[in-house]
Write a structure and sequence with these properties.
With about 475 residues, the protein is an alpha/beta fold. The chain has two domains: about 10-255 and about 465-485, Aldehyde Dehydrogenase, Chain A, domain 1 (3-Layer(aba) Sandwich), CATH 3.40.605.10; about 260-445, Aldehyde Dehydrogenase, Chain A, domain 2. It is about 40% helix and about 20% strand. The chain has helices at about 45-65, 65-80, 85-95, 100-120, 155-170, 185-195, 210-220, 235-245, 270-280, 295-310, 330-345, 385-390, 405-410, 430-435, 470-475; strands at about 10, 10-15, 15-20, 25-30, 35-40, 130, 135-145, 145-150, 175-180, 205, 225-230, 250-255, 260, 290-295, 350-355, 375-380, 395-400, 415-420, 420-425, 440-445, 460, 465, 480-485. Helix 2 (about 65-80) crosses helix 6 (about 185-195). The longest helix is centred in the N-terminal third of the chain and has 22 residues, at about 100-120. The radius of gyration is 23 Å and the shape is globular. Bound molecules: 1,4-dihydronicotinamide adenine dinucleotide and the ligand N/C(=C\C=C\C(=O)O)C(=O)O. 1,4-dihydronicotinamide adenine dinucleotide binds near residues 153, 155, 334 and 393. The ligand N/C(=C\C=C\C(=O)O)C(=O)O binds near residues 155, 160, 230, 253 and 286. It is found in: Cytoplasm.
């Protein structure tokens, strides 16, 4: 930290060293609305320096055995774990989420990401075939691609950054990562641990700043052959456009408009608390959050009453409040965007059953300028409404009735996104049938967000391109070569 004034000031991390920047961006504490940190406003120059560092580090790092790289990843995981409390406090302050969530989800999962890829990189096998009349044996080998460009969002900052850094460096690539300019602090804290973990200079470079300035410089750089991105669909379009002239490998993990389908035989005791969580966890700022709840008509009234009651118990509070389930949204602009959807729904004749504009939120004086809102439930809304079609990415969920299995599948599939769905029913045949017909990269039945890191993660349609996970990330971060030997 460079101490020019009382604000925390971050620096880029290039070639194993912290480097100051010529200009900075203000970063806000979402729970107070006050500036508390300055983030480098990097551009092309910093990307050039990072590319040079990553290029120089590549031959040495890629030549190490998977076992050696695995050891380094385990060491970094241990160091992150030792700093868990400090990182959780920092993530909460930077993002607005509760400390409880950062402590129980974000930082433990960042540690798990490193340990998972440290282990999985040791177990990949290649393909071989001898079924060839020409008397040949054919086999594949995989090699790291080179310099990986990693762009991550603000909702799960360290969790999603490590989900990209870990598989990239485990496979032998060097990386240039660009976290969101809104939430850069935990990435910068991780940089302080890299040397001790044994990560050689230039293997992990982190360059901070805005998307249009430094993000685009990274995406457009001819020596960065692959980009892994998590964020919004419009930004993904821009990345596709900028990387097209270089035919870059792209992994795009985008938004969702995720349905929950609740059949009349669902176990409501489990379904209601889980659906409250899937709608409002992390302030609804997870791409996997539920935002359209379809409930079979025979239980619609009962579900709605219980769901609204449970939503009202989902306490909004300052991030340090151990009883709070929800903290502040990421920014003033985002809060206004989320509120605008509720206003639109109201103008269309929808009913707001609880939350924004219906209930009152009480906050300490010092947090009055923070970006808080209550979890909000909307009903009597048409499938064509923008609230039922567009990603809101906030604590807002719509509940509507349905009659038949066939009808609900068609309605659930009627949006441009296809990321995640939940299905609630005790009928085994039905859950298999419905899961198979949903246009969704992930389907959780009678649960939500239980993750198996080894299996493919990602969406179809406008929710993305490619998958992440054990084998998928390894394939993305390596180039495959088929070798034929005539004998
Ligand atoms: N995983 C997800 O599904 C996420 C979805 N969103 C959605 O996106 C909306 C807007 O949020 P934003 O923060 O603006 O998302 P975004 O997609 O603009 O930001 C994600 C990352 O991309 C970078 N970025 C932005 N423009 C770029 C460009 N032209 N070239 C390269 N990198 C660029 C950002 O700096 C950040 O690191 C949210 O309201 C939400 O609906 C936002 C974050 C995560
Ligand atoms: N990509 C996102 C969440 C991923 C969760 C996971 O891997 O478990 C997101 O919210 O953007």
């Amino acid at each position: 930290m460079a101490g020019t004034n009382t604000l925390m000031t971050l620096e880029n991390f290039i070639n194993g060293k912290f480097v100051p920047c010529n200009s900075y961006i203000d970063s806000y504490d979402p729970s107070t609305g006050e500036v508390y940190c300055r983030v480098p406003n990097s551009g092309k120059e910093e990307i050039e320096a990072a590319v040079e560092a990553a290029r120089s580090a590549f031959p040495g790092w890629s030549a190490r055995s998977p076992q050696e790289r695995s050891k380094v990843l385990h060491q970094l995981a241990d160091l992150l774990e030792q700093s868990l409390e400090e990182l959780a406090q920092a993530e909460s302050r930077d993002q607005g989420k509760t400390v409880t969530l950062a402590r129980s989800l974000d930082i433990p999962r960042a540690v798990q990401n490193l340990r998972f890829f440290a282990s999985s990189v040791l177990h990949h096998t290649s393909e071989c075939t001898q079924a060839d009349p020409a008397g040949c044996v054919h086999y594949t080998v995989r090699a790291p691609v080179g310099i990986a460009g990693l762009i991550s969002p603000w909702n799960l900052p360290l969790y999603l950054l490590t989900w990209k850094v870990a598989p990239a460096i485990a496979a032998g690539n060097t990386v240039i990562a660009k976290p969101s300019e809104l939430t850069s602090v935990t990435a910068w804290m991780m940089c302080k641990l890299l040397e001790k973990a044994g990560v050689p200079p230039g293997v992990v470079n982190i360059v901070f700043g805005t998307g249009p300035r430094v993000g685009e410089a990274l995406v457009a750089h001819p020596e960065v052959p692959l980009i892994s991105f998590t964020g919004s669909q419009p930004t993904a379009e821009r990345i596709i456009h900028l990387s097209a002239p270089h035919c870059k490998k792209l992994s795009l993990e985008l938004g969702g408009k995720n349905p929950a389908i609740i059949f009349e035989d669902a176990n409501l005791e489990e379904c209601i608390p889980t659906t409250v969580k899937s709608s409002f966890a992390n302030q609804g700022e997870i791409c996997l959050c539920t935002s359209r709840i379809f409930v079979q008509r025979s239980i619609y009234k009962e579900f709605l009453e219980k769901f609204v009651e449970a939503t009202r118990r989902w306490k909004v509070g300052i991030p340090s409040d151990p009883l709070a389930s929800m903290g502040a949204l990421i920014s003033k602009a985002h809060l206004e965007k989320v509120r605008s959807y509720i206003k639109k729904a109201r103008s269309e004749g929808a009913r707001i059953l609880c939350g924004e504009g219906v209930d009152t939120l009480s906050l300490p004086a010092k947090n009055q300028g923070g970006y808080f809102m209550l979890p909000t439930v909307i009903t009597h809304i048409k499938d064509e409404s923008c609230c039922m079609k567009e990603e809101i990415f906030g604590p807002v969920t719509c509940v509507v009735p349905f009659d038949s299995e066939e009808e609900v599948i068609q309605r659930a599939n009627s949006v441009k996104y296809g990321l995640a769905a939940t299905v609630w029913s005790c009928n085994v045949g039905r859950v298999h049938r419905v899961a198979k017909k949903l246009q969704s990269g992930l389907v959780w039945t009678n649960c939500w967000l239980i993750r198996e890191l080894n299996l493919p993660f990602g969406g179809m349609k406008s929710s993305g391109v490619g998958r992440e996970g054990g084998k998928d990330s390894y394939e993305f971060f390596t180039e495959v070569k088929t070798i034929t030997i005539k004998h």
